[in-house]
From TrEMBL:
Alphabetical list of InterPro entries matching this protein: PAP2/HPO, PAP2/HPO_sf
Record keyword ATP-binding present: no
Species of provenance: Actinoplanes regularis
Pfam families from the UniProt entry: PAP2
The protein's name: Undecaprenyl-diphosphatase
Assigned keywords, A-Z: Membrane, Transmembrane, Transmembrane helix
Lineage, opening ranks: Bacteria, Bacillati, Actinomycetota, Actinomycetes, Micromonosporales
Domain Phosphatidic acid phosphatase type 2/haloperoxidase: 108-220, 348-460
Segments traversing the membrane: 24-44, 82-101, 108-129, 149-171, 178-201, 207-226, 267-288, 324-342, 349-369, 389-408, 415-433, 445-463
Length: 485
């Protein structure tokens, strides 16, 4: 055998040798992490006194720091929600759908399988160990079920860890440490919030983290074996992500031109449009507050005569469709899916500015006008803002109208007309529900329409959301051409 052949042979075996070395090191790390979790489990299960003393000391100390401040409790509860199933399951679902849109089924399946494993591990171990939650001097939060391990710590470690591994190829190498650090900070804050709120011991959180790391390691290794069987070269998940070649497909908008060609000029135009819209709202609000027509109060009182338990429930549902949580939820689902489909930031920027501008215009004009609620029974009780303009209606108009504008230019199928229909029906339903519940006058609805029309008109002429609009198929073809070049 010649020297050249030996070099080629050694070069051919090098990837296999490197894969084997990394696999052994990874296996050792998983074993160490697993042993750490098993040790904690046994110490908790057999009530080891030093560990119990440490857990109670940390729980009591943090409780003394948190219990006297409602602001601290509120902040910790908000942080804790990012580790709850109500937030993480929709987050993973949106990412899975986006991956399927980008034609990356393998990482999508990885997210599903790994996430299901987390949902099985948490309740199973809690039943097995049966540890009760901490009892502190001044309880500030409550949680059902047993304590060990922390479901928030376990779930956040798995969810944010697997998302980091899947999305890492889309991040430039020099930003990857910051990217991983960001996800690590989220996991750390969630774990700390559970201890500070007094619903978990320190050992519960540490156990959740250890088990989460072990589960991610096992599933990531299984994914690497799957890649090798499919003929792909082995990757190093900690450095390159689960599927390095998916980088071009995972990048949000690799082929997009400049979103705002003259950002400072267009930012100034947006500010001017905001000020003019506020001026129009203030003039209308001042007028209807000082010289309110008689029918303005009569309409909510008339609608009050038709109240019934069934209509009360229906109006509550319609009203909720326009509140902050529903509007934010729809926006957070639509924006990443729109980015996955059309690979453009411009429509996403249009929607984000539409909702941010609507919120600021509503809050400032409501504070400036300070109009009382109608003289009718208020089914929603006292609210912190005044009646003019209706924030529910303005937000609903801005959201569904912006979505309709974006979709109509990019979808050529007959079902696209569903979105203009929603842009009409959703605000009508919310407007009727708000007046039926005694919360708004008809002129408050008029103010909401003025806000939405003026603000969306401003953004339409400045952002031009449908400039270079393409269909999902055209965006995918353009991306493939960019990758080839």
């Amino acid at each position: 055998m010649t020297d050249d052949n030996r070099v080629v042979e050694r070069a051919g075996w090098a990837p296999v040798r490197h894969f084997a070395e990394r696999s052994v090191l990874g296996l050792i790390a998983v074993i160490v992490i697993g042993l750490g979790f098993a040790t904690l489990l046994l110490l908790v299960r057999f009530h080891w006194t030093p560990l119990q003393s440490l857990d109670h000391a940390v729980a009591d100390g943090l409780n003394h720091q948190v219990a006297g401040s409602e602001t601290r409790v509120e902040i910790l509860q908000q942080i804790s929600t990012f580790g709850g199933r109500g937030f993480m399951i929709p987050l993973v679902a949106v990412v899975v759908v986006a991956l399927l849109i980008r034609r990356r089924p393998r990482p999508a399946l990885y997210l599903v399988v790994t996430g299901i494993g987390a949902m099985i591990l948490d309740p199973s171990l809690k039943v097995l160990v049966g540890r009760v939650r901490p009892v502190v001097e001044s309880p500030v939060a409550h949680a059902p079920g047993n304590s060990f391990p922390s479901g928030h710590a376990l779930g956040s470690m798995i969810v944010y860890g697997m998302l980091a591994l899947v999305l890492l190829p889309a991040v430039r190498p020099r930003f990857r440490p910051w990217f991983l650090g960001f996800f690590g900070l989220i996991v750390a804050l969630i774990g700390f919030s559970r201890i500070a709120l007094g619903v978990h011991f320190l050992s519960d959180v540490v156990a959740g983290w250890l088990l989460g790391i072990a589960w991610i390691s096992v599933t990531a290794y299984a994914f690497r074996l799957w890649r090798r069987e499919a003929g792909h070269p082995a990757a190093r998940p900690a450095h390159d992500g689960l599927e390095p070649e998916a980088g071009p497909d995972l990048r949000p908008a690799p082929a997009e031109r400049a979103v705002l060609p003259q950002p400072w000029t267009q930012a100034a135009e947006i500010v001017v449009g905001w000020v003019l819209t506020f001026g129009l709202l203030y003039v209308l609000g001042y007028t209807v507050t000082r010289w309110s027509p008689g029918w303005d109060d009569a309409v909510p009182r008339w609608l009050q005569e038709f109240r019934s338990p069934a209509l009360d429930d229906l109006s509550w549902l319609w009203s909720k469709a326009g509140d902050t949580h529903a509007i934010l939820a729809v926006s957070l689902v639509f924006c990443p899916l729109a980015l996955a489909l059309w690979r453009q930031w411009r429509p996403v920027l249009f929607l984000v500015l539409a909702m941010f501008g609507e919120l600021t215009l509503f809050l400032t004009s409501a504070a400036a006008v300070d109009r009382p609620r109608p003289a009718a029974e208020h089914l929603d009780g006292p609210l912190p803002t005044s009646a003019f303009p209706s924030g529910h209606i303005a937000a609903t108009i801005c959201l569904w109208s912006a979505i309709a504008i974006i979709v109509m230019a990019r979808v050529h199928k007959p079902w696209r007309w569903l979105f203009p229909a929603l842009a009409v029906l959703m605000p009508l339903g919310v407007a009727m529900s708000r007046m039926y519940r005694g919360m708004h006058h008809p002129t408050d609805v008029l103010g909401a329409c003025l806000l939405a029309a003026a603000w969306l008109g401003t953004l339409w002429f400045v952002i031009r959301p449908n400039t270079h609009a393409v269909t999902a198929t055209e965006a995918a073809v353009e991306n493939r051409q960019l990758v080839v070049v």
